[in-house]
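Summary for the lay section of the report: proteins are chains of building blocks that fold into shapes. Here we show the chain for Oxidoreductase, 2OG-Fe(II) oxygenase family protein and then a coded description of the shape we predicted for it.
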Amino acid sequence: MMQQTIPVVDLQLFLHGDQSQQQTFITTLGQALETLGFFAVVNHGVDRDLIQQAYQQAEAFFQRSDDVKLRYEDAALNGQRGFTRFGKEHAKDHPAPDLKEFWHVGREHHLANLDPIEIPEFCPVMNQLYQQLDQCAVTLLEACALYLGEPRSFLSNMTIAADSILRIIHYPPIPEDADPASLRAAPHEDINLITLLCEATDSGLELLQRDGTWLAIPNIPGQIIVDSGDMLQQLTNGLLKSTTHRVVNHGDRDRRFSMPFFVHPVAQTDLTPLPSCITKTGNEVKFPKITAGEYLQQRLAEIGLK
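The coded shape description reads as follows.
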């Protein structure tokens, strides 16, 4: 069996283990985010059959003609719901477009989700997956808060009713005339608190290590890959790392699907670095005062969605 290259934690040990097992989970998770910015989680409570159903629904939608898909692209939504066409998004500071198209699902009370009427099971399946990933994220944020020495619900409370986003990505077969500088996803960092990446349909994910080399993260059934984003890095004054990562092109030019769940805090959340984390990182404030909403709007403009 293929070995994972990043630390692996078992969520059931945090939920149901003894005190020693729970503490080991918290420490492993926290140290992984300090050193690599990534870990993998097993026994995560997200239904694997549901994940596969979601990929089937995604394939059913993305194989439709561009005319059909573009019915669900609304420029007024800044890419925050529905369809975003191939080549629209690029990584921050990277001019070449990413070789992907995608669909966004969020909380209905922020913006209404779009419903592709050609695929009747699409919305029910994606909404159910959204709920399960959201619950998993809450639990992981509780462990993260305990690692930081904060109250258990400190981070998860920031996400209650926040507009976390499930992104369903289709990386089509790479066209022969693609820009040589284009990758399926160019090197970037996520903006949010944490990201949960459902097991993709193919490999390609790599993270940038501190020594400047790229580490491949294999796609292993039953594992969800988790990474910390810029907002968590900011809040912890750089204690927890937002690590550069990418999705590389494979020579066989096969299509690929993935489904990251971007966990956001509510817009008014103050991301000023925590005093406890300032103490742990040399007593120097490394990041400016900013709210989560201001941070998000700034990044949407930088990556071409706004």
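Put simply, here is one thing we learned. The chain has a mean pLDDT of 90.
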